[in-house]
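User: Design a sequence. Structure:
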């Protein structure tokens, strides 16, 4: 069996200070995470990427070469 290699860029993003935001105003923090996921989803799709997993306030994304 022949192995296949793939060149890719991997990106992990998160919301800086999200835990503090949750402590200060939970409703606002939840609104921000919804907006973050909508925005990152749109931008990743526009640039041909693929979101592999959301982790709380973070996202693991793959961009193939």
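Assistant: Done.
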């Amino acid at each position: 069996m022949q192995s296949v290699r793939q060149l890719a860029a991997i990106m992990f993003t998160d919301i800086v200070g999200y835990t503090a935001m949750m402590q200060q105003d939970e409703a606002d923090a939840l609104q921000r995470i919804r907006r973050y996921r909508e925005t990152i989803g749109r931008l990743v799709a526009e640039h041909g990427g693929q979101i592999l997993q959301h982790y709380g306030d973070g996202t693991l994304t793959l961009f193939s070469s």
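The first strand starts at residue 8 and ends at 14. The chain has a mean pLDDT of 94.
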